[in-house]
Specification:
Layout (H helix, E strand, L loop, with lengths): L1 E24 L9 E11 L6 E4 L5 E7 L3 E14 L13 H9 L7 H4 L12 H8 L8 H15 L1 E2 L10 H7 L1 E2 L1 H14 L4 E8 L17 E8 L3 E6 L4 E2 L4 E7 L8 E7 L3 E11 L6
Length: 296
């Protein structure tokens, strides 16, 4: 079990005053069987008079607000206290074959996995194309156990790809990431999702945070002081298994999830539409610190 205090501050600076703006924010950590958001506070400057919250289609908490006064800076701060009991799944124990999983997701009578089936289909950000199908089939052959295949694709990201924050932008396609073998956590997540969906498997996008304070002598994990992205794979009989291709690991209590979706667009932490403003500059600051489980 682990308990964290998370502070996430986003500042948006506009070149010209914004007359009015409308936003949605997904910054509240989810609560499920292995994670509990004990406290959450959202602070917005300038003040919003119509802040509301709802649960989206994927069971993620979403805050909606507007600002109806002239402003040249927007600041959104989220403070959370989260307890997680998530344990890493031993992938070597997942012996269901990839071929069986493929056939399960094609079986129209399998209503027990109907929710997972929606994550088999490509999206605009996670397309299926010949090269990504070939990439996926390196690992997800019919006779290979899904656990072994997942271990191998994680090792591939570690050994064949290079984390490079300058190599891609938000809209860089997976085909370019696969060709150049460089990118960031969001790119790795989208590429792994595309590869698995190309092979008829169910995989979703996860957005959240990762603890980046390793034990003494251990390397610092990638994703410090920023949001993080990973994937979640569905295995019938087991459920959803979260994997971090950027750090070559199975997710446990060092990961805190904000939300799940088909791709980044479903769980973008802050979206908006503005009138005026011109160009803008964005600044994001994240602090995630462990706290004593007995601390109020």
């Amino acid at each position: 079990m682990a308990r964290y205090r998370i502070h996430h501050k986003t500042s948006c600076f506009y070149n010209y005053p914004v007359i009015a703006s409308y936003h949605s924010a997904k910054l509240k950590p989810i609560s499920n069987e292995s994670q509990s958001c004990e406290r959450f506070k959202l602070k917005i400057q300038p003040n919003s008079q119509d802040l509301s919250e709802r649960i989206d289609y994927f069971d993620n908490a979403m805050a909606m607000f507007s600002i109806q006064e002239s402003h040249d800076k927007l600041t959104v701060e989220a403070e959370s206290i989260v307890t997680t009991t998530k344990r890493a799944v031993d992938l070597t124990t997942l012996d269901t074959s990839c071929g069986y999983l493929r056939s399960s997701f094609k079986d129209v009578t399998r209503t027990d996995i109907i929710d997972a089936k929606q994550f088999v289909h490509p999206t605009e950000i996670t397309p299926i194309f010949p090269e990504v199908t070939d990439f996926g089939m390196r690992f997800f052959k019919d006779e290979i156990p899904i656990g072994k295949a997942l271990l191998e694709i994680l090792n591939c990201f570690k050994n064949e790809f290079e984390f490079d924050s300058t190599a891609t932008e938000v809209n860089t396609p997976s085909s370019e990431v696969l060709q150049n073998k460089r990118g960031v956590c969001q790119d790795y997540a989208h590429l792994m999702i595309s590869a698995m969906r190309a092979c008829g498997l169910s995989c979703r996008y996860a957005s959240g945070y990762i603890l980046t304070m390793p034990p003494e002598g251990m390397p610092r994990l990638i994703g410090a002081d920023a949001s993080h992205a990973w994937v979640s794979v569905f295995v019938p009989g087991i459920g959803w298994v979260d994997l971090d291709p950027t750090n070559n690991c199975v997710c446990a209590d060092q990961h805190v999830c904000i939300g799940y979706g088909r791709d980044y667009s479903d769980v973008s932490m802050l979206k908006g539409a503005v009138t005026g403003g011109g160009d803008h500059q964005l600044s994001v600051e994240v602090t995630m610190e462990p706290i004593d489980p007995s601390q109020p």
